[in-house]
């Protein structure tokens, strides 16, 4: 780099004034150097634009890989002669003996016509004994004398078993009159003196029970 150096001119023929300071001359010299340096640096202040680097293109080469060599074929095996296969001899299976099923008894065929159960005929109704027939002439009971004096009255209901001959086989008191003397008098007359028309079942005489009411009543005399 070249440097510009400025020197102060000499004034010939005129002497410096005696009162001018020396430092003024020194300042003027420094100022001139400063201006010269500033001009020099201004000329070189803008650096030149750097040149763009050239673009590089990457080119890659693919090398073809060598093909693998095929493996060597295995050595041929020795072929052994085939072994003889054992012969299968079919033996006949024994045939099973036939199983004979036992005979089955078949039920007899049902009758085509349904059986009708025979219903026995209903027995003929029983006609109870009769004790009020006019021709029987059954007498009334005897009124006990003591019962008359004591004014005893009432109705006794007798239960009589009449046999096939029309006689009282059994006489019992079903309902009392309230007085034993009256009850006994009724039982005695029916058992001893009464006759009945026996009960009938169809055309036959049968024994049967019958109820007989007997009333004891006192009548006032006028």
TrEMBL record:
Residue ranges of the TM segments: 23-46
Pfam families from the UniProt entry? TonB_C
One Gene Ontology cellular component: plasma membrane protein complex
* Ranges where the TonB C-terminal domain occurs: 128-222
Task: Report which residue ranges the record marks as coiled coil.
Answer: none
Q: State the PROSITE patterns in the record.
A: TONB_CTD
Region (Disordered) location: 63-124
**Membrane among the record's keywords?**
yes
Q: Which PANTHER family match?
A: PROTEIN TONB, PROTEIN TONB-RELATED
Spell out the family assignment given in the record's similarity comment: Belongs to the TonB family.
Q: What is this protein called?
A: Energy transducer TonB
Source organism: Solimonas marina
